[in-house]
Specification:
Elements: E1 9-16, E2 22-29, E3 34-40, E4 43-46, E5 51-55, E6 58-63, E7 73-78, E8 88-90
Antiparallel strand pairs: 1-2, 1-8, 2-3, 3-4, 5-6, 6-7
Length: about 90
């Protein structure tokens, strides 16, 4: 799959992942493109087609290939008040 990420980096967020010692890194570009990577020691996996989706009054980060039921994985991103979920840290 080709990635055509455009522009300069606007924001970077980091969160712990489900595997001990691993991290999720979310990069938001000025163009609005998103890049999500899962990092563990010297392994870096780029996640497929990350996007923000509104779920009720919260915002989730959806990514990856759809499963058998056409559902993709999601990570919480913003709570009902529009604040960043505590699992994320904005580093830029």
């Amino acid at each position: 799959m080709a990635y055509n990420l455009q522009g300069d980096v606007r924001e970077i967020y980091v969160s712990d992942s489900s595997i001990k010692g691993s991290k999720n890194v979310l990069i938001v570009y000025e163009s609005g493109d998103l890049e999500l990577k899962w990092c563990c020691e010297n392994i870096v996996e780029r996640q497929v087609c990350p996007s923000f989706v509104k779920v009720g009054r919260t915002m989730k980060l959806e990514y990856g290939e759809p499963n058998l039921f056409q559902i993709r994985q999601m990570l919480p991103f913003q709570n009902e008040q529009g604040e960043l979920e505590p699992c994320w840290e904005k580093i830029m």
